[in-house]
Amino acid sequence: MTTPPVRPAAPGDADELLRLRVAVLDGARLTDAWRSTFRDDMRARLGTDPSLLAYVVPADEHTLASCALGIVYRGYLGPTHPTGLWGRIHTVATDPAHRRRGHARAVTTALIDALKAAGCGSIELRATEAGAPLYHALGFAPLDGYMALRPTPPGPRH
């Protein structure tokens, strides 16, 4: 299998990144405001914000086959974070018509390389059941004890 042509995402890819991102958010409540905020954020930051890294495989000149989006975060220095930087892969998505061709591996590998080049000493992600074999093959391992506190919607608390 030949390696798919991977390139950095550009502001003009925002609509397609939104389409692919929505496809992986099974069951999430997505409002028009969420969609426009995501798209506008991608248009504004891609290529100008060094903390937002994204790679794509084009399907043709207008659509994307696959994408991987990640963020560089600044924390504190420590043994596991010698640079104080760590990365998170937020989205890896491939259009169903283009799956099983190595696209997810290609964009994820490009993103990992970019996060490492940006100085990230650690990279994390949340794996779906379908994506876990790829991430294991790329060297990721489960880390027990991870928890999250998310904002709650306004309204009465019980």
TrEMBL record:
GO molecular function: acyltransferase activity, transferring groups other than amino-acyl groups
EC identifiers of the protein: 2.3.-.-
Keyword Acyltransferase (UniProt): yes
Key words of the record: Acyltransferase, Transferase
Keyword Acyltransferase: yes
InterPro entries, A to Z: Acyl_CoA_acyltransferase, Bact_Acetyltransf, GNAT_dom
Residue ranges of the TM segments: none
Domain called N-acetyltransferase: residue spans: 4-158
Name listed for the protein in its UniProt record: GNAT family N-acetyltransferase
